[in-house]
Amino acid sequence: MKEVLTPLEMRCVDKNTEYNKLPTLVLMENAGSQIASYIIENYPDKKKVSLYAGTGGNGGDAFVAARHLLNHDYRIHLVLLSRPENIKNKDSILNWNVIEHISKADGNIRISIITDSTQLKPDNSDIIVDAILGTGINGKLRQPVSKAIDIINYSPAIRLSVDVPSGLNPLTGEVFDKCVVAHKTLTLHKKKTGLLDAQSSYVGDVVVLDIGIPRVSEKYVGEGDLLKIPKVNVNSHKGQNGSVLIVGSNKDYVGAVIFAAESALKSGIDLVYIVAPKSSADIIKSYNPEFIVRKVDGDVLSLDCYDDVCELSKRVDSILIGSGAGLDDTTAELYNKMVNDIDKPIIIDADALKLVDKEKIIKANTILTPHHAEFEKFFSIKLPSDFDEKIGILRKLSIEYNTTIVLKAKTDIIVNSDDYKLNDTGNAGMTVGGTGDILAGMITAYSTKMNLFDSACISTFIIGQVADKLLDEKGYSYTSNDILEKI
After folding, report:
1. In CATH, what is the architecture of 4-219?
2. pTM above 0.85, yes or no
3. Looking at the domain covering 233-486, what would its CATH class be?
């Protein structure tokens, strides 16, 4: 698992933790208590603490931290840089209500609600906790946040920023306007990419606080990973939401291409181009008029259609090969030339896994989608039964052959050179014909919008989750068409 996360990856992990039945309220409690514990352990003699809070999750962490610090005889000044009704995070609202109620009875806490920058005064506390902003800033800071950052920076206090210094972009480390200049940054769960790239004088010493996120929230694909799917631009035109090319089918296997093409369309792309032999092209076209089908002579795919494939490849974002193609030597020649020559993401599925030379993929941009037997034949290797050893071999081969691998099994393993994830959605009903083609079509569609690894992770999760819902509704008698209807 990664040691450094982007802000989006961190949001995915938070959401996956909730998906794994651990409430986000618990994470906020853990974060706030860890911040307080850090202060208590490292600054036991500095008892005057100001906490500057925004309206998001960082503000909620500050509310919790204030509550814990009160129990250790700290004198607290909690500064909310907005009206309470502007707090949107449900967990932050709850913790605001708690600390506000406590403040009516505990004389060691003073709360200031700041709605105008003129209300801010110089701060002579021993420690200032910056919990104002946790997200990227792309423009000038608004008031009263801007003046609050000036107040913090001009203070003689020890400055502690929660997660990232407010005003610093957590993805890039850039500062567009101004940011808190922290002595220490108390980042939650793992370091964010911006902390590594930022000017060191802004972030100070970076301390990682464990807030109790379970390993499975990163190790397994979950609903949080769906946050990576880009939103459709409401002003987009035809083709701007992705287009794919499927090169497959022969006279005996027509359904595989149809399943893959339908799946790709249902996964939110605009255009599906298909190159298929004349013997099956008309059937494919008649199934859905949205398919743009280029028929080529013969009953099987061969190098004779390479010019057609090459031309269409220039119009698309990603390519799928193998669906229902058969094992003819002439098809192998076509697929190997495509992998060798075409500089587009190529998903190698089904029959293509038996036809493509593994040495061809080293310089290509590929995803392999084998089950165990296909994997062992493709790489000429026997997989061990030990799960951790299996992951190790997959990662080694992924690096050696510069490819993303989706090993389909009861627990899917998705690996690339940088990371791996597991997927445990799905059930035995997915052995029905066509599910592999649906998965390949989904991966191809999503690879037009995001990197290959995330495309594979998200697709395996979605199709498995759909299959699990169908199992609840129909038992094991559901079909691939049922899966298509629910994607």
Report:
1. 3-Layer(aba) Sandwich (3.40)
2. yes
3. alpha beta
